[in-house]
Amino acid sequence: MADRYEGSFFGRRIGKPLTPRREALMKRELPRLGLDLGRPAPADLRDLFETDIRDICVEVGFGGGEHLLHRARSNPRTGFIGVEPFVGSMAKALAAIVEEGLKNVRLYDDDAVTLLDWLPEASVDLAYQLYPDPWPKSRHWKRRFINRLNLSRYARAIRPGCEFRFASDIDTYIDWTLRHCRDHPQFEWTAETAADWKTPWEGWPGTRYEAKAIREGRIGRYLTFRRV
Fold first, then answer.
1. Which HAMAP family does the UniProt entry name for this protein (predicted)?
2. Which CATH class is domain 2-227?
3. Which of 37, 81, 123, 199 is found 20 to 30 A from 31 (Cα to Cα)?
4. pTM here?
């Protein structure tokens, strides 16, 4: 198990109790919109969606869902797969998806490692991991999601020539990610100037974690890696 997961990548899954309305919504709608990894993935992930889809984007750890929902609204022909193990965050995003009738989002509420292993090879056109848990204490760095094995998982799922995007406000995690991607033969950093990694991507809506970082005096960094 240690070779497969290299540590635990998230802590508590349940925070404050859900309201009765949110709890009922989760019971009713998550089975419909959630992915069943007990079944083989379709050869073409576009078949997961009940609308005309052109390409596939995965967001690992979507938190409050601000970025996932914004992208889904702005890109109705992109199919989004959002991964989030925390019940409160999943319930919040699920409520918005149902209320707005978004047909281009599917969800997974457990460990992203399992989802990445389930995806067909070269099936994803873009992947995001935004403001993940930094595990800031050095003794916990082994729990950071970015590591050799998980980068290989991303590389297997992402089409060659497509992108993996990572954002964090923690300098040690930025350095950690740059070093791991530099050492991985299937990723190359696309930055050519300092502005390339200090500027959010086009159409960036911000996230609540980014807003918290700004309030506390930290600056986000936005890294783009090409799958080679």
1. tRNA_methyltr_TrmB (MF_01057)
2. alpha beta
3. 123
4. 0.92
